[in-house]
Amino acid sequence: MLPVVLMIAEKPSVAETIAQKLSSQAPRVRKALNGIPVHEWDGSFANQRVMFRMTAVTGHVYGMDFPSKYNSWDKVDPADLFECPTVKTEANEKQKVPIMLKAESRNTSYVILWLDCDKEGENICFEITDILCEHMRLAPGQNLFRARFSALTTPDLKRAMETLTVPNENESKSVDARQELDLRIGCCFTRFQTKIFHGKYGSLDSALISYGPCQTPTLGFCVKRHDIIQQFKPEKFWTIRVSVILDAEKDVSLSWSRNRLFDKEAAEYFLNSIKESKTAKVTDCTKKECAKKRPVGLNTVEMLRLASSRLGFSPHHTMQVAERLYTQGYISYPRTETTHYPANFDYRSVLSKFSSHDQWSQYVTWDSIVQPLKGHDAGDHSPITPLVAVNSSVFHDSDAAKLYEFVLKYFISTVTEDCIYLETNITFKIQNETFTFCGKEIIKPGFTKVYPFSVISSDDQIPQVTVNSSYPISEKKITESETKPPDYLTESELISMMETHGIGTDASIPVHINNICQRNYVKLIPGRKLQPTELGIILVHGYLKIDPELVLPTMRAELEKQLELIAKGSATIGPVVQHTVDIFKAKFLYFVKNIGGMDELFEVSFSKHADSGKPFSRCGKCRRYMKLVLNRLHCQVCQDTYSVPSDGTLRAFNDLRCPLDDFELVEFSSGKSYIFCPYCINNPPFDGMKKGNGCNNCSHPSCVYGFNSKTIAQCAECEQGLMVLDPASGPKWKISCNKCNVFLSVQCKKLSVLEETCGDCSSQCVAVDDKKGCLYCTEEFEANVEMHRLVDQRRGGRGGGRGRGREISVILLLNVYRTLSKERLNHSSGRESGKFYHHHPNFTNFDSNITQVQWDSLVPGGSQSWSRLPQFTKRNGAVQACGSRLVEMVKGLCRSHSGVFSGFNRRSDSSMNGLFSDDSQDPNNNSNDLVSDYLSAHYGSLDSNLDKDVDNSFSDLELLWPNNPKSLAFKILTESKAHQRFRRNISDECCKKPCSVNDMVKYCGGGRRIAAYQ
């Protein structure tokens, strides 16, 4: 077996590109347990043959947060957040990246990290190594390496492989310091502000009154410009306009040397002094050849500025498009502060790609190509450059095409000669007053021919004059004008100001600008200008009134310098963090003490709860009606305010009250619906109950609305939630999972949960109209029940319009897997038929009901696993269960193969039923095609035998047998913790006879349910 070199990128798309560029042939592709692709190929490393295994994370694996006991806004003093501990939590628990990394790193000899080469990338490197160190002994420079690259091109990637280094711990620590400080400072001020002002004012149009060490100074720039505009007082001024006739009776306007006067009488005096003059005398004429310098290399900030001012893109959108172009291999890494090309940069070879291209060749003139100018070398990535020459038509997104063209033309302009123009200055004298004319004429357009945004306005023809000659005056007059205030800051101007004052980094500047827009502190007006809202203005004025340093850029700029010292190893993280925390804690305590200064500003602009809203539901403390105001309930008597869910419909729930606090219950509807207590949803009454949870997550033992009274079964999809009856949903009753977006709809007049449990599946029995039984096992209820998945329309991403595709795919995978590894078992204690079918060891397929006694006799540790059997869902006339954690890896395979299963989703329900019913021997049934498609898609790369027709003898499928150490099935089973707990061999009672897939489908098809146990 070859040694394994595990390589990890920051995004799956980057991993795919790297694998394709570094492998000599097409790499083998499979899916990790969480659906992220894994690319494998053979090659050489460290003077030996190895197998490369390339996969990826999805950005940061962990985020910084407070322990759960500090998450209550009501029970925790915000000042405590400066001193409390912090913890690292999974950035996205659903993606299960740590589990995937542990699984993929087994039997690994080397690890190469291909994260983005910036400080955030270094931090992710150490997040990954912390995971791998749990079962690997990593030594930087020996079996742990860091690849550094600036572009996803074959030469760059191969050069990175030849010059491997180690992760930079100092840069990672600087990110940890920034995360901790932003968390402590931001959460502390945000919680205090939000509670104070949301609890008092009803017309606030923001769900969160947030503070951020970078966000707030950014807002401060916008408000400062707004204040200048508001305080500006226009003033009239006067100037003298003179026109003279030069060549070919052409009128030329002259500029007065005094420019403008703010005294009208003085302006009239000077006009009268030249009023009698008929000609203007030329006293001087100079001609000078000038050059407009070509730009230096393109860095991130310049790209953001120009994309906003020239292309009309927001900074946030620009970075999103640029990252896509980078991961697709069209441009180099888009996050850099450097504008100086490296000494070994072969710009001519890059230009040659475009000189022969039909669309871009017109911009490359080899006679005009020169060395690029020396820019600023920040020591990070090279300037942003195009990597390949493609037509704009290849981009399906017009914004991507525009940004690609912009980067391409900008790069060509940096290596094209300067623009040369002739500047002519003519001085005229009329009596004692001096007037001038200035004209420009292009000699060589140079780079401006390529990059039109820097074109110099050229006069059609510079007039030819002679010194001491006089020319007739065609017009003399006074013009009156008025001074105008500066305009609101554009995004481009704001980016420049942030860079100048050291607010944010090239990567975070777009985030901060986007945040102040999303938080409703500024609004975007035509011309991509940022106009502060009333809320944003009051916040900044309040900070200036209490502590100006909270909004001025000086504090953050100094902190950025300290973080840079950590990154360079000149300072240690502990003292820097503690010093900054002490400063902001003192400022926070002073801010709290003097909050009245900001409150006075809010009183002027926002109405209090008592003056707004409408009566909605009763308060449990005073029994008076609370008012509903912008997703908040306010009690005017108690002066308490309670946040309620947004983006849905709220209505009082039948005047019923919470048994814990006597507040009237409220129903919230948004796809799924649930009821909640306004007090409990803000002040969770039990440990483990999170803020914002409704009654379907309440564990009160006797409350008739909590999940103890309304739960029917465990959710078979996510296996973490409970299927809870929504008591307000009738007559179209909904039984929803309180953790995920799966729900069952039941069509009946009355539905209630009974105290009895089903003897077959342990679900709670229900009363459907006048009938009683199990919702999952009673066949009479089958026509009433449908399973659905709620789709969040606000989220982006891939979608196809067939909402049931994923459920069908999971069930198809589980059934195919069951079919291929089924064994038939005679069990004497079974039903009278004497036959009982089970799947080893993930699933058990019952021909009919089974008692707990039978289960105990069949499964080692049965008494423990019986209680953990997941509940069942209905699909296509069969009752199934998607497995527990034991089969999460199998489910991950299914989720990741959306392309493979898209074909299955298009098949009719009858073809899907072929995997469940006894009709599988029908020659017209295409279930075998489904199995064949599945095998070739998922297992075809493991062994050539698997490409054979699945209808051949069972021996052809030997590699899929769970007990074969070579099979993927065996690996999935043996690497699971559940298998280690319930390890057992394949039964000797299996017939072991060859059988076709049709036979297997037939034997297994009569089963009513598949159950997975932990």
TrEMBL record:
Enzyme class: isomerase
Chain ranges of the Topo IA-type catalytic domain: 168-589
UniProt KW Repeat keyword: no
Record-level Gene Ontology MF annotations: DNA binding; DNA topoisomerase type I (single strand cut, ATP-independent) activity; hormone activity; metal ion binding
Domain (Toprim): residue spans on this chain: 4-152
One Pfam family hit: Insulin
GO terms for cellular component: extracellular region; nucleus
Function: Introduces a single-strand break via transesterification at a target site in duplex DNA. Releases the supercoiling and torsional tension of DNA introduced during the DNA replication and transcription by transiently cleaving and rejoining one strand of the DNA duplex. The scissile phosphodiester is attacked by the catalytic tyrosine of the enzyme, resulting in the formation of a DNA-(5'-phosphotyrosyl)-enzyme intermediate and the expulsion of a 3'-OH DNA strand.
Family (UniProt): Belongs to the type IA topoisomerase family.
Protein name (Swiss-Prot/TrEMBL): DNA topoisomerase
Species annotation: Allacma fusca
